[in-house]
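Case study 2.
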Amino acid sequence: MKNDCPIIVAISGLSSNTGKTTLARELLSRLPGWEAIKLTRGHYRSCGKDPSGCCVSDLLREEPLIRSGREANYEFGKDTGRFWEAGAANVHWVIVGEDQVEEGINRALAQVQTAGVIVEGNSFLDFVTADFAIMCARAGENKLKTSARRTMAKADALYLSTVDDADRKTAIEQFQNWRAGLSIDLGVDTLPIFTKQNIPRLIEFIRESLCVSSELSVSVVNV
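Prediction:
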């Protein structure tokens, strides 16, 4: 039977290459039975960029395109393939133009059959309220996305990724040093901070925050 109200855990990024997909894989591997949604937004039509420079330019349609199921979207080395390999019960790849995000994400969510879904993306949070939202950032320098401050205001936790396997203390210090040089306030002072070293604790924090212990399946394998 379809679950009309899946638990939505959003994974967004302060900038590009912040470990969103890696974190999504980690959560999916510890949340048996959950599904995943990957939102890819093309924009060349509205901003005038060369279509050859947009990796989904040939997939953009007059309506949102949703590819669901392993046969439709599994490809080794791609984000959707990584979600399947992490153990997702189903994966939905949503390809949309600038003005199709709301319709696309709502259509994809309507196809979710399980208790919970991991959604990777930023722009969908302008139209959907996540039950729990995680903002991913590099421990060091981040090139802020235009939507980052708006998305950050909706975050419930901050996840710091590193490229050098730095420990949690070092990662936080690197992030705070970068943040201190900004001319804007990111508004992260009250957010709990997590790193790769304490992902099991992040899952427990999600469960505690949502008070859904009977629904949120938690496994601490591969810790």
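The first helix runs from residue 20 to 30.
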